[in-house]
Design goal:
With about 160 residues, the protein is an alpha+beta fold. About 25% of the residues lie in helices and about 35% in strands.
Length: about 160
């Protein structure tokens, strides 16, 4: 699909998101560093007035992300009902200058509910989760729901006798 046939992505403020963006960090001594800011990144990490000693940490901690909301459902924790909670919230995250275990390349992360996550999903890993969720939805619709209807009908019949 060409960009002329789709609406441009907008930020939370409703402004169009430019595709040729860069971030820039300027230190108090006038040193400036910049890098690529993906079109999907919701926040521009640009700063001015950064102490030179803080620059390496600021760059190492840099994260680009975008969020996709999940549906709200009533959940219970340890038998206690709660208000509706967001489930299956998804994000795309990249930590382009991170050392260690954080992903430099964009990955998907799915927050199941509360603080339970599926982390660092590659495109194929995300496809596997989507297939598992579709299979679970089919199981709910095609097998469990009919059995639940039957069980409830049977229960009501037994309660009347």
């Amino acid at each position: 699909m060409s960009s002329s046939t789709t609406e441009p992505r907008t930020s939370d403020a409703g402004e169009p998101v430019r595709r040729d963006r860069t971030w820039t960090i300027t230190t108090t001594c006038g040193c400036t560093v910049s890098g690529y800011l993906p079109a999907w990144a919701e926040v521009d990490p640009s700063e001015t007035g950064v102490l030179l000693d803080e620059l390496p940490t600021l760059i190492a901690d840099m994260s680009h992300w975008t969020r996709f909301p999940g549906p709200r459902m009533a959940v219970a924790h340890r038998g206690v009902e709660s208000d509706d909670s967001e489930v299956f919230r998804t994000s795309i995250d990249a930590n382009p200058y991170a050392g260690g275990p954080l992903p430099r390349m964009p990955v998907a992360n799915i927050r199941i509910v509360g603080d339970y996550w599926l982390h660092s999903l590659t495109p194929s890993g995300l496809a596997e989760v989507a297939a598992q969720l579709r299979a679970q939805a089919s199981l709910l619709d095609d097998e469990i729901r009919p059995q639940l209807i039957s069980a409830r009908d049977d229960w009501l019949t037994q309660q009347r006798t």
